[in-house]
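User: Could you go from structure to sequence for me? I need the amino acid at each position, not a summary. Structure tokens:
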């Protein structure tokens, strides 16, 4: 039960990481009318979950988790550098760094008993720290089972973008909840694939997301930072 409570806290939208201020290119897609209704948002999210950057980000989170469990801080730092290098736009990179560093600071403040461990991890990753790395550190330190931790990471990403779509498209609250339920099977299938990915399989196809992210900064008006 304690590990479940830890997971619920880690994926809670009330966790003060600033996630609410990012749309990951979704705002551009709505502005250009690429996404105009709930069904198109669902198709976009399904494609990202199956082929996009988020599956690689989650796979790196899995490797961060295993590195912490094995006490291999060199691997932890290596995967943090690797993930930083694969960010395709400055906005996506800054988002990952800002949220990752915020989570590391929060972890030290939340749990005094293991704060020294979190501090050593923070030093080891050679900041700036990506969100996936910080999340993997937290999940391992709080003894959240890996499968549940990975599912929580993907679920948090999915519900965050659905919440952004509710504001941007706009969609009704019920439509947003319906989307969440419709994506359940896709989430479970994605996790099963991600957990068995080899290092050489860490590739994605999300050039549409990259283009949307690059164009976001030139929008006439914006609700989100990225």
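Assistant: Here is the amino acid at each position, in order:
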């Amino acid at each position: 039960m304690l590990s479940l409570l830890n997971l619920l806290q880690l994926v809670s939208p009330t966790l003060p990481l600033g996630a609410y201020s990012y749309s990951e290119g979704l705002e551009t897609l709505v502005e250009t009318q690429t996404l105009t209704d709930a069904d198109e948002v669902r198709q976009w999210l399904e494609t990202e979950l199956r082929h996009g950057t988020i599956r690689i980000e989650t796979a790196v989170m899995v490797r961060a988790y295993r590195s912490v469990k094995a006490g291999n801080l060199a691997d932890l730092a290596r995967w943090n550098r690797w993930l930083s290098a694969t960010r395709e736009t400055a906005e996506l990179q800054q988002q990952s760094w800002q949220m990752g560093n915020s989570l590391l600071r929060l972890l030290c403040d939340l749990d005094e008993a293991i704060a020294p461990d979190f501090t050593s991890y923070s030093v080891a990753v050679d900041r700036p720290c990506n969100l996936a790395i910080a999340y993997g550190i937290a999940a391992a330190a709080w003894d959240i089972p890996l499968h549940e931790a990975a599912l929580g990471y993907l679920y948090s990403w999915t519900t965050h973008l659905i919440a952004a779509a509710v504001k941007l498209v706009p969609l009704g609250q019920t439509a947003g909840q319906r989307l969440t339920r419709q994506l359940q099977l896709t989430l479970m299938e994605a996790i099963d694939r991600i957990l068995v990915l080899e290092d050489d399989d860490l590739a994605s196809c999300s050039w549409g997301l990259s283009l949307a992210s690059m164009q976001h900064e030139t929008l006439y008006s914006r609700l989100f930072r990225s």
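One structural detail worth keeping in mind: The CA atoms of residues 23 and 161 lie 6 Å apart.
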